[in-house]
# Entry
Amino acid sequence: LPYDPENLYSVPYTWGTLDIISNTAKVQEPITSWSAMFDPQYAGNVLLINNSRDALGIALLYLGYSVNTTDEAEIQEAYQLIADAVKNGVYQGKVMDEGFQKMEGGNAAIAMYYAGDYLTMVEENPDLAFYRPTAQGYNMFIDAMCIPTGCQNQELAEIFINYMLSEEPAVANAEYISYASPNALVYESETYQADMGQEAMEILYPDLGDFAQQYNTLAYRNLSNEMLDYVNTLWETLKIN
# Structure
């Protein structure tokens, strides 16, 4: 990972992508682009994720820009795309975990959320459909375990991490949270593959080609404090319920 190139301080725990979830009971046509997140025809039925990097990120990708751009003109253009959608009443609201209840309950038509969470939602609402905008791009993330410098029992922390990486608990955990695992003992497990099913495996483990190259292109990088303030200030001006 960019912040730990020699793998000295962190252990990858889960990984995944930010994608589109639609409710086929409300949207009959297949969703094929991030444009659905800004489209007035879905007014009042779109859920915007309550996270400035994610929300502006998909607008940047739709416009053909990098999610890590520091060009204020490009960021402003992405902001304006969302601001126009707000003006047109596209968004039902900004959501994080509330998105689960709204999509599971059929109370919204389109949302942007993480692939692993879609698998949880579709268990409650089989009308939900999944789309990954591979042509335009999508955020790709890796969550990692690490030990804080102030840890009072480093040995115990290391034992816990090793335990979480061992096959039986790693497989059980991956099945429970429904996120992709970077642990070969998990994704190569025949038991895990059978339990998850082919559709879930294809969603969680897409053929990415060069994983490192994809990650370096699609994962967020830390912005400078000045740029982060600029992004967050723009975000706070978007008045959505």
Notes: Residues 72-87 form the longest helix (16 residues). The chain has a mean pLDDT of 93. The two ends are 36 Å apart (CA to CA).
